[in-house]
């Protein structure tokens, strides 16, 4: 069961829309959500009965799940709600299954125990489970040591948000013109992970529109 108050990301099948909503109630076979908001426009979205959706959320143990559902109808109470079909099966999203997007995000890397001087760089790619960064010349990133990562994420609706997460560099590889460090996030909180999932979905949609990424 999904905990009441959990934030849920909805992706419409066959459409370039990412919606945000909250679980407000549930019964054995029905999930009740508030009216979802389009993450790009910030406007409320009205979903016709039968609309098929892919839902993603992070549970209280910080594990992300996804499931397929569809709109069953609407319910008027103290709060207008949309009824979704409760999932028969939910798939846990493994770290390797997170959508990984090649995009440049501004980041600052800080050592927790001052093993190296802080530095700024950009990502080579990003997912809700970790990032790879371009290592500036003259910088050494120690492996298997906890570090702090400060990120700046720009969403489709124009909002800019700043996040601090803890990570660990797992490996350093040689690329064509620079070195890359692969960093896994550690003990990331539910809200931040959900934001990263949303950011990656939005980047994926933009790439599909531009023809950079195939369906």
Automatic annotation (TrEMBL):
Keywords: Bacterial flagellum, c-di-GMP, Nucleotide-binding. InterPro entries: PilZ_domain, Split_barrel_FMN-bd, T3SS_YcgR_PilZN. Pfam families: PilZ (PF07238), PilZNR (PF12945). Residues 3-87 form the Type III secretion system flagellar brake protein YcgR PilZN domain. SUPFAM superfamilies: PilZ domain-like (SSF141371). Residues 94-202 form the PilZ domain. One of its GO terms (molecular function) is cyclic-di-GMP binding. This is Pilus assembly protein PilZ. It comes from Aeribacillus pallidus.
């Amino acid at each position: 069961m999904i905990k009441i108050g959990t934030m849920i990301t909805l992706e419409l099948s066959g459409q370039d829309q990412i919606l945000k909503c909250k679980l407000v109630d549930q019964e054995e076979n029905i999930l009740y959500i508030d009216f979802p908001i389009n993450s790009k426009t910030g406007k409320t979205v009205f979903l016709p009965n039968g609309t098929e959706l892919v839902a993603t959320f992070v549970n209280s143990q910080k594990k992300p799940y996804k499931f397929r559902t569809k709109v069953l109808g609407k319910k008027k109470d103290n709060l207008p709600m949309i009824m979704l079909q409760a999932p028969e099966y939910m798939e846990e999203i493994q770290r390797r299954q997170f959508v990984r997007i090649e995009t440049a995000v501004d980041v600052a890397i800080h050592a927790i125990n001052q093993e190296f001087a802080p530095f700024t760089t950009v990502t080579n790619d990003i997912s809700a489970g970790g990032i790879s960064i371009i290592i500036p010349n003259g910088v050494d990133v120690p492996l298997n040591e906890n570090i702090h990562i400060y990120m700046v994420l720009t969403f489709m609706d124009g909002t800019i948000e700043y996040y601090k997460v803890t990570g660990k560099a797992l490996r350093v590889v040689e690329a064509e013109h620079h070195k890359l460090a692969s960093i896994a996030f550690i003990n990331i909180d539910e809200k931040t992970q959900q934001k990263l999932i949303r950011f990656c979905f939005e980047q994926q949609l933009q790439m599909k529109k531009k023809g950079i990424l195939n369906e």
